[in-house]
Amino acid sequence: MNIFVSVTLNQSEREQLLSLDSDDHFFFHNEFSYEDLIHPDFLNSSICFGNVPVQWLEKHPKLEWI
């Protein structure tokens, strides 16, 4: 499963997520502002962890969990 992470994490926090024994793929990004264009990694993810501009949500074809 692809997971879009849009919160500021330090290296240790990123490593903890990556160390999970799973087939999940993480896309790490800092937070976005309302003016930012929708990120392709977001559109390719099933899960969003963090904050993204609200207009992105209505454009996502398969988002399962926020």
List keywords for this structure.
3-stranded parallel β-sheet; alpha/beta; 3 strands; 66 residues; 21% strand; single chain
Give an overview in words.
By secondary structure, the chain is an alpha/beta fold. The chain has one domain (2-57). 24% of the residues lie in helices and 21% in strands. It contains three helices and three strands. A three-stranded parallel sheet has the order 2-1-3, with helices on one face. It starts with a strand and ends in a 9-residue tail after the last helix. The mean pLDDT is 92.
Question: Short summary of the structure?
Answer:
Helices cover 24% and strands 21% of the residues.
Outline the fold blueprint:
Layout: E1 2-6, H1 11-18, E2 25-29, H2 40-43, E3 47-50, H3 54-57
Parallel strand pairs: 1-2, 1-3
List low-pLDDT spans.
none
Please give the share of residues in helix. Answer: 10-25%
Structural class: alpha/beta
DSSP strand (E) fraction? 15-25%
Net shape: globular
Q: In the residues, how many domains can be counted?
A: 1
How do the SSEs run, as a string of H and E?
EHEHEH
The main sheet orders its strands as 2-1-3
